[in-house]
Amino acid sequence: MTEAIRIEKLTKSYGKERGVIDLDLVVEPGEVFGYLGPNGAGKTTTIRTLLDLIRPTSGRCWIFGLDCQEQPIEVHKRVGYVPGELALYPKLTGEQTVRHFAALRGGVDMAWVRELADRLDFDLKRPAKAYSSGNKRKLGLILALMSRPDLLLLDEASAGLDPLMQQSFYRILAEMQAAGSTIFFSSHNLPEVERVCDRVGIIRDGRLVAVESVSDLKAKSLRRIEIQFERPVPVLEFEGLPGVQDVEVQDSRLTFTVLGSIDSIFKAAAQHTVNNIISHEPSLEEVFLTFYEGGGKDAN
Question: Which terminus of the chain, N or C, has fewer Cβ atoms within 10 Å?
């Protein structure tokens, strides 16, 4: 099966400034892929290169087997895009804006547009200049979703939405995925990514430093574990175990942090009578900070 997105050795430089560096990435059809990094990390550069809005310094990228630089029109027919900042015609109403862009696509199902507007609590009759930032974001979502695209490229798509509208947005994304769409989700809203994404990629200073499922990333990150034994245990039995740090003993309670596998810890604990084990799983935010504070290893 052709990948939804394939990026090979992609580099984009802006003079002395870097955009992305030697980027390799594959996104499979039907998945929701979270692309994580703070502002300036290279997220928007990646998306704009996929859409041929900017040209790479080197490297290549494809969407559903179509070369993004050689076949941009064919690519755009299969893609819906929400930019980080949406430019609108101020005098056009929401509906006029939709009809304008729908005409460029050869028409869309206006009943679906009205359903989207209803679910996002959006007034199609007002002029764009009267919309708040949140309502402009809703219009951007409608424009991206109205053609039921095979691939959604979302650049900080939920920014400016209130919590209730975010929930509606997540439900729409789930329905799009169930219908077969692929979703590429750029964000620095970590709880959001943790909720909706199948896999995540973490980009740091233009380089991709990790690509894994949320659960696998969290399993490889620091977690805090507390073991309650029936009686005190020798601390030296645990201090030298692989990945174990910050060991503390208080009476018969042992606490420590661990990076990576916990198999050796449980084998050591099994030599004693254990009353209880509590594992404090890391949030995606804690995983993300591990990579941005020097704890993550480059993936390429």
Answer: N
